[in-house]
Task: inverse folding
């Protein structure tokens, strides 16, 4: 009983941070961003008790809030500087967006589901985030009017090389995305070489919902 009473949100978060460290998420500013973000706020009421688990959870529109380890790893893999402008493809619940907002100068985020976008915008307002700019649209097209970006994160699985998004990177920018058509994809990092080419690194196997064309008509 005493153990249950001591199982506060703070202790549960502390265990989560330790778990992330043990899996290789070690960048202090990334861990701090995760530790200071209230994940239960981004989850559905039905799954709120599981918010401190290191697992993906369902959200509206058949989408998911990513596993904290994957959120941490992708954020760390982008090597974000506090001066960077970051494009995020797939706002979802807004959890990853909030993490990015704490380590970047500006975050531009695109979502194809109007329901998710409105809910996320409400959370951003409640949190007082002033460096997040939202857009309802086709994530696969990026945000050319605001390009080029220092960093781009894609939170849905692209079937192949995301050429349209890579074209919106600065010459030495970094893009991280899950790539693949099957249920398991590879998390791939593209780093611009300054001459129009990219250094490509495969990081880990992941499971993401697919990156779909267009916008959702009813959701």
Result:
């Amino acid at each position: 009983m005493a153990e249950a009473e001591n199982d506060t949100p703070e202790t549960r978060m502390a265990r989560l941070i330790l778990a992330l460290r043990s899996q290789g998420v070690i960048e202090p500013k990334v861990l701090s961003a995760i530790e200071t973000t209230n994940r239960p706020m981004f989850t559905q009421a039905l799954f709120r008790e599981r918010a401190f688990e290191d697992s993906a959870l369902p959200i509206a529109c058949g989408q998911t809030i990513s596993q904290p380890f994957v959120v941490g790893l992708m954020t760390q893999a982008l090597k974000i500087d506090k001066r960077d402008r970051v494009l995020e493809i797939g706002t979802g619940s807004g959890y990853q967006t909030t993490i990015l907002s704490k380590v970047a100068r500006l975050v531009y985020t695109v979502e194809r589901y109007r329901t998710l976008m409105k809910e996320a915008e409400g959370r951003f307002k409640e949190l007082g985030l002033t460096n997040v700019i939202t857009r309802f649209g086709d994530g696969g097209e990026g945000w050319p009017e605001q390009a080029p970006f220092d960093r781009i994160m894609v939170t849905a699985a692209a079937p192949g090389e995301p050429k349209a998004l890579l074209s919106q990177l600065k010459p030495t920018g970094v893009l991280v995305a899950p790539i693949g058509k099957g249920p398991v994809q590879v998390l791939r990092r593209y780093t611009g070489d300054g001459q129009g080419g990219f250094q490509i690194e495969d990081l880990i196997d992941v499971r993401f919902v697919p990156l779909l064309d267009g916008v959702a008509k009813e959701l």
Observations:
- The longest strand covers residues 169-179.
